[in-house]
């Protein structure tokens, strides 16, 4: 692992709003991470809209930093809302920036997906779109367990704490499975 034992995971939420259920779910994941795993949540609020002309001159500093963090991480955890049956624009935009050459930091990177939405399917459609994108980038997305937190407004309290016990247990189980996935598929 990256520093002689600790498995370092970088996490990105696909929602910028303060009360985001997806960001709250990542905070819960940070708490529930198994021993030996640390989860750092990256801030993508300053990532500009993708522009190839800008990239040709050089990655903006915020993007260069994200690319480095993904490259150096042992794995990536993404929490996306579902927007109009797909991934949120801010997350797709961030992934697009990170994915550009010369290096492609998602190539061979162990990835876990999760998501929370107000609907009953809990971002299923968004997650399958993400899976499709990662085929092109050769990201090693864990197949299961799939964490799809439906009717999120009933699972978190007003302060953004994940209060639903079955969801907490399931998220913890997913993170334990992800630790195994990182060990099986990680290049480091
Ligand atoms: C533009 C937009 C599109 C949405 N489309 C969907 C959708 O397709 N399916 C769904 O379950 N919820 C949809 N929602 C509701 C979101 O699930 C809900 O706003 C959720 O709280 C967003 O995640 P967040 O709490 O992390 O910001 C949509 C919300 C927005 C703003």
Report on the architecture of this protein.
This protein is of the alpha/beta class. The protein has six helices and eight strands, in the order E-H-E-H-H-E-E-E-H-E-H-E-E-H. The site of flavin mononucleotide has 15 residues, from helix 1 and strand 4.
Number of DSSP helical runs: 6
Proportion of helical residues: 25-40%
β-strand number: 8
Q: What can be said about the biggest beta sheet?
A: 6 strands, parallel
Mean pLDDT, nearest integer? 96
User: What general form does the structure show?
Assistant: globular
* Poorly predicted segments: none
Walk me through the topology.
Blueprint: E1 7-13, H1 21-32, E2 37-42, H2 52-57, H3 61-72, E3 75-79, E4 82-83, E5 86-87, H4 89-98, E6 110-116, H5 124-137, E7 140-141, E8 147-149, H6 165-185
Parallel strand pairs: 1-2, 1-3, 3-6, 6-7, 6-8
Antiparallel strand pairs: 4-5
Residues 15, 17, 20-22, 81-85, 116-119, 152 line the site of flavin mononucleotide.
Question: What's a concise summary of this model?
Answer:
The protein has 188 residues and is of the alpha/beta class. 40% of the residues lie in helices and 18% in strands.
Characteristics:
188 residues, two-stranded antiparallel ribbon, 8 strands, globular
């Amino acid at each position: 692992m990256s520093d002689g034992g600790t498995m370092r995971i970088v996490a990105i939420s696909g929602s910028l709003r303060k009360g985001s259920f997806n960001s709250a779910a990542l905070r819960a994941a940070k708490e529930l991470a198994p021993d030996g795993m640390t989860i750092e949540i990256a801030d993508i609020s300053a990532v500009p809209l993708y522009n190839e002309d800008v990239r040709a001159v050089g990655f903006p500093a915020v993007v260069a930093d994200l690319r480095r963090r993904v490259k150096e991480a042992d794995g990536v955890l993404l929490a996306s809302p579902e927007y109009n049956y797909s991934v949120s624009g801010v997350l797709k935009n961030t992934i697009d920036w990170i994915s550009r050459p010369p290096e492609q930091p998602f190539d061979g990177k162990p990835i876990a997906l999760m998501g929370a939405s107000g609907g009953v399917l809990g971002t299923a459609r968004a997650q399958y779109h993400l899976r499709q994108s990662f085929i092109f980038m050769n990201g090693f997305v864990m197949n299961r367990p799939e964490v799809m937190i439906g009717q999120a407004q009933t699972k978190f309290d007003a302060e953004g704490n994940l209060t639903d016990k079955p969801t907490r247990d399931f998220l913890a189980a997913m993170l334990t499975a992800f630790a195994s996935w990182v060990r099986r598929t990680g290049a480091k």
